[in-house]
């Protein structure tokens, strides 16, 4: 796979850290409709991908609620960084997807060995996490609250 990495990763990580991390992944592909992971499963990897991936949450008595659509070069998965390392959402490929797949244990080990790298990775993933939580809240309110989220989109 060629092309730039996620803009968030480019802004968040100094070039030296990006270069070190990019020694770790291997390329993978997912066909349209493939489940990348399930809510509650073991979060042992993450991806920077092309294509479109939908994040969803189980809702008792209903179909899973699509929380957010991720596009080209976005981080797919953040649960790998935080114990107990289990997915907080599910993910499905809406289009064919090609991705860089990172082994979470290797990245956490690299971060533990280099606190500066660990800090920048944690800030990057934390920023993504904060955005995803805001999106989940807004989407769930839009779907299930009597008056929606009140946001004008």
UniProtKB/TrEMBL annotation:
PROSITE patterns: CNMP_BINDING_3. It comes from the Bacteria. SUPFAM superfamilies: cAMP-binding domain-like. Residues 9-77 form the Cyclic nucleotide-binding domain. Gene3D superfamilies: Jelly Rolls (2.60.120.10). This is Cyclic nucleotide-binding domain-containing protein.
């Amino acid at each position: 796979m060629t092309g730039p990495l996620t803009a968030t990763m480019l802004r968040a990580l100094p070039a030296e850290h990006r270069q070190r991390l990019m020694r770790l992944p291997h390329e993978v592909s997912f066909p349209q409709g493939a489940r990348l992971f399930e809510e509650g499963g073991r979060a042992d990897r993450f991806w920077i991908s092309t294509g479109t991936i939908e994040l969803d949450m189980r809702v008792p008595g209903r179909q899973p609620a699509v929380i957010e659509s991720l596009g080209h070069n976005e981080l797919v998965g953040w649960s790998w960084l935080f114990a107990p390392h289990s997915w907080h959402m599910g993910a499905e490929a809406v289009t064919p997807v090609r991705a860089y797949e990172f082994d979470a244990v290797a990245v956490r080990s690299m971060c533990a060995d280099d606190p500066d790298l660990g800090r920048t990775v944690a800030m990057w993933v934390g920023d993504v996490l904060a955005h995803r939580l805001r999106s989940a809240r807004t989407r769930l309110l839009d779907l299930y609250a009597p008056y929606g989220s009140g946001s004008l989109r």
